[in-house]
Write a structure and sequence with these properties.
Blueprint (H helix, E strand, L loop, with lengths): L3 E6 L3 H13 L3 E7 L3 H10 L4 E3 L2 H7 L4 E4 L6 H10 L3 E5 L6 H13 L4 E4 L6 H11 L6 E9 L12 H4 L3 H16 L5 E9 L28 E8 L4 E7 L7 E8 L3 E3 L4 E6 L2 E6 L9 H13 L9 H20 L3 E2 L1
Parallel strand pairs: 1-2, 1-4, 2-3, 4-5, 5-6, 7-10
Antiparallel strand pairs: 7-11, 8-9, 8-15, 9-10, 11-12, 12-13, 13-14
Helix pairs in contact: 4-5, 5-10, 8-10
Length: 347
């Protein structure tokens, strides 16, 4: 392929603040069209980013212009229907995390991708971060030995988004599916993506729609019902077939300090992200080795788009392939099912 022709679906925050600015920096693809269920929003984004065509629906976009792939940046409740439409039109797909709200929706996407023989990549930008990729290289070299434990967290003391994020019908869940997915995937990726066998979790909404002053909030677009009927915090444990376990925590609001950490431990050493640090031994003494893996001005969304386009060109595999996206979705949904039932969920 020369320049890959992209159609962006959704003109909200993740599209206009992350994906479209990254495409503007990348010579290997051109955004040929954008669509949104609010046509005026698509028009505004098209004018801002010099996109030649804008539409009010994905069906109009797929019929109205020649595209190689679509980049799905809708609310979570739109991922499945848009992906199925795109796959049936023969378009390759990059889809923002999470894959969907439910396993039923995710499986419909997977069936459409496979049946129509198109390519798929889940957009989880942390896998495109230089630090995460360096950590994975170290682990693959055997530096950590056998991986058996991970702990990962995405904790905001106060950071609940507004709008559609808190509405279950639109989002499919709260911080576990919104920000926890990043950290769960980061730890799972570093562990080598072992097969999960069970999930135990608990969720809570004890703080809810707080009115705390002096804190910023991500402003999500209001949805039709605009309820607050999801968790504001959650935590749990995932067990894997190889005997390893992962502890995870994800909160939008909790009376605890902000933290964002991923720690993976093996029989020889452990590794922590942000800052990248290896906890091991040298000359029979304990050692902590910090590794600088940050590139100046690194844009993880640009890295992600380059990885997607290289995948379409056949230069590399999908950074987050379909099977892994389905497995990640199963872990997220099992966490919610465990919290709802109070039982361990066997996968």
């Amino acid at each position: 392929m020369d320049k890959i022709k992209i159609g962006v679906v959704g003109a909200g925050n993740i599209s206009t603040n992350a994906h479209l600015p990254a495409y503007a920096k990348y010579d290997g693809a051109s955004v040929e069209a954008i669509c949104d269920t609010v046509p005026e929003r698509a028009k505004t984004a098209a004018e801002r980013f010099n996109i030649p065509r804008w539409y009010g629906s994905v069906e109009e976009m797929l019929e109205g212009c020649e595209l190689d792939a679509v980049d799905i940046c809708t609310w979570n409740n739109g991922h499945s229907t848009v992906a199925v439409s795109a796959a049936c039109a023969g378009k390759h797909i990059m889809c923002e995390k999470p894959m969907a709200r439910t396993m039923t929706e995710a499986q419909a996407m997977a069936d459409a991708v496979r049946n129509n023989k198109v390519k798929f990549m889940l957009a989880v930008p942390n896998r495109s971060c230089g630090e995460n990729r360096k950590a994975r290289e170290l682990i693959e070299s055997g530096a950590l030995g056998d991986i058996y434990f991970a702990r990962t967290s995405a904790v905001r003391r106060r950071g609940t988004p507004t709008g559609w994020f808190t509405d279950f019908k639109t989002s499919g869940g709260g911080p576990i599916i919104d920000i926890g997915v990043h950290r769960i995937d980061a730890a799972w990726y570093l562990m080598g993506c072992p097969k999960p066998v069970s999930v135990t979790a608990a969720t809570s909404n004890r703080i809810g729609d707080y009115q705390t002053k002096g804190v910023g909030r991500w402003q999500g677009t209001p949805c039709p019902d605009n309820k607050f009927d999801v968790e504001d915090s959650g935590a749990g444990c995932i067990r894997f077939e190889n005997g390893a376990i992962m502890l995870f925590e994800a909160t939008w609001a909790i009376n605890a300090p902000d933290s964002s950490e991923t720690l993976v431990c093996g029989s020889k050493a452990g590794i922590r992200l942000s800052p990248l640090t290896v906890f091991g031994e040298k000359d029979d003494y304990l050692s902590d080795e910090k590794i600088d893996a940050h590139a100046d001005g690194e844009d993880v969304f640009l890295n992600e788009i380059e990885a997607f386009c290289d995948y379409l060109r056949g230069k590399c595999p999908s950074r987050v392939p379909l099977d892994q996206a389905l497995t990640l979705q199963s872990m997220l949904n099992a966490a919610y099912e465990s919290a709802k039932t109070g039982k361990e969920i066997i996968l």
